[in-house]
Structure prediction request, 336 residues.
Amino acid sequence: MKKPLSFLPDCLAIVVSGLGLMALVACAQNGPQTIAPGEIWPDNRGQHVQAHGGGILKMNDTYYWYGEDRSQGLERGKRYVACYSSTDLAHWTFCNRVVKAADPANLGFGWVLERPKVFYNAPSKKFVMYAHIDDRRYQFASVAVFTCDKADGDYQYVKSFRPLNHESRDIGQFIDDDGTAYLIFEDRPFGFRIAKLSAVYLSVEKEMCLIPQHMEGGALVHYDGLYYVVGSSLTGWAPNPNKYATATKLEGPWSEFKDIAPPEVKTYGSQSTMMLKIAGTKTNAVIFMGDIWKPRSQWDSRYLWMPLQIGGGKLWLPEPKPWDLDVQTGEAVVKK
Ligand code: GAL
Prediction:
């Protein structure tokens, strides 16, 4: 990503032409923009993006990135979700701390709000956020729902529940090409489940499948007629070899799970949180979004975003290197 120019207002850059003329242009330019996995990712204020365990929502040409805000110095009893916006997925403008929650489910000291994901519900015109909500021992194992009238407004807590009465820890979000919204959730006794949301997205309506693998960080993408699911093993903050499986229908049958990278690199130190498909004018790209957790300095946790090599039932995460993404054309090119 480009370093912001600190002496200029948000998202403006000065271009000097050969004739010595100056023009102001917005930073979120057309054309390829560089993403550098594993590095500090400065927002428009020059601060590292706080959107850990996050998800992306696209509204028209704007992408919103929501995630856990683990900034230093926040109020200890509260949990925060931050929201950023971008039109190129490389330059991010801080919008708002969209959740500043003070233990809405009365879970006590050390309560947890993780992996927020936002869906836009067209019938109700509401933005609906799901997150993993838990007590400090991770026994509540439920989802919390928040809603808002704006993508980046102040979200209000609605309720917490166990989807389809199952335990739910890590959650993932998936919107199919037909617009149907699904939640992926880790159900410790059984594996992980993919389930459809209700018409207004305020509840989880129908189970599509139970994948009887003990995996979390669930992420799903529909690419070229196949569903690809990715998940990590249950090793807490420590990285492990993430794996994938495929199916022609969400109901399955799912293939056996295979490594997405050489197992010894443990997903290059990251854990899956989402796969984002970019349908461009020339081609489609699928971005693996992972978290490089730093449990003792969570605010400094990094992001590993890389274009996946995907197709024909195979999925592979290339070695992380800076790469260029053109969201218009869908082209993603790893630098040499
Ligand atoms: C990980 C999970 C994270 C967080 C962490 C706590 O397995 O993916 O979201 O819950 O455990 O130890």
